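Dear colleagues,

As part of the handover before I leave the project, I'm documenting each prediction I ran so the next person doesn't have to rerun anything. This entry is a single chain, and its sequence is reproduced below.
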Amino acid sequence: MTSPNHPPLPMLITGIAGVAGFNAFHYFRRRYGDKVIGVRQPSMWPLSGPGIIPCELTDSLAVQQLWQEHRFGSVISSLGSCRLKSCETDPDMAYRVNVLGTENVLRHAARYDARVLHTSIDLVFAGREPDESHSGYVETDRADPVTVYGAMMVRAEQVVLDQCPDACVLRISLPMGISFNGHAGAIDWIASRFKQGKPATLYFDEVRTPTFTDCLCRLLADLLNRPLAGIYHAGGPRRISLYQIAQVVNVVGGHDPSLLHGCMRRQAGPMPPRAGDVSLNCDKLVEYLGRQPFDPWPIDDRLVPTHRDWHHAPDDLPEDFQVGEQSVAQLLYQNPRRPEPVPKSRRQQT
């Protein structure tokens, strides 16, 4: 029997190849062991281990068999392909992965009366021009995505709420944590370029509200036991551009500052289209919880870039500041105030 302090078990987590799902799987697996199951695509065979099951979620029969075997009491739905260019060039694939797979899972969640939390994304919005007076998108703002990926995530949101009206849809921003393949997340992709001595070009005017995965996982754990339903924004309290994020990764990782380049998003060409300032206003969620669930990323104000050349000669860094992979883990993957263990990536497992 499930304890009143535990979420409904067993638990299904989808999208474990992505940053949010990968970190959520390990977070809940540490707490509830074999009662937590993560699913991955059969082709993603390197992602294996206790509790990880291959299942093609676009196959309705395979999903039905999965539910019949495990009869899940809760679902963290993080399924989706966020590869912007791939989604633009193959909308059918984007539909299958981001919409159809979610629909198949949620159909059975409704049948088994499972508690559902679904993670969507800030890219359901086109983004405004960066403006400090802009307080962020609220839940009642009209979704107007500029990418196929964003459009499919809007459709997935509606599928979730149609199938499971009691579900909670969390629109998140960039989840800042490690990824299994070592290059799926924002930190990992940027760092992988720098480690190889390759340049990385990021945008001055694409602004996000990232969150530590530590904070996001704790929020998911909290909401699994609450009757919250509908769409809520779940971005962090710090607004930061992709270029600034790359500056932080460059400095903390101890990389060559000349490898980082920046431009305005419209200078990067039309494919894939890029959003502008998609900062999320999370006042609705904060009011419901009675607290701010997210610490700012990065947590130390001294690691926030103040100008475009900051990473060449950062000033006012902490006296004991050290660079390298360990610092990336302790300052950027983990929330220094309440750190969770960092799961091992594929490279670290070999």
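The mean pLDDT is 93. The longest strand covers residues 115-121.

All the best with the project,
I.
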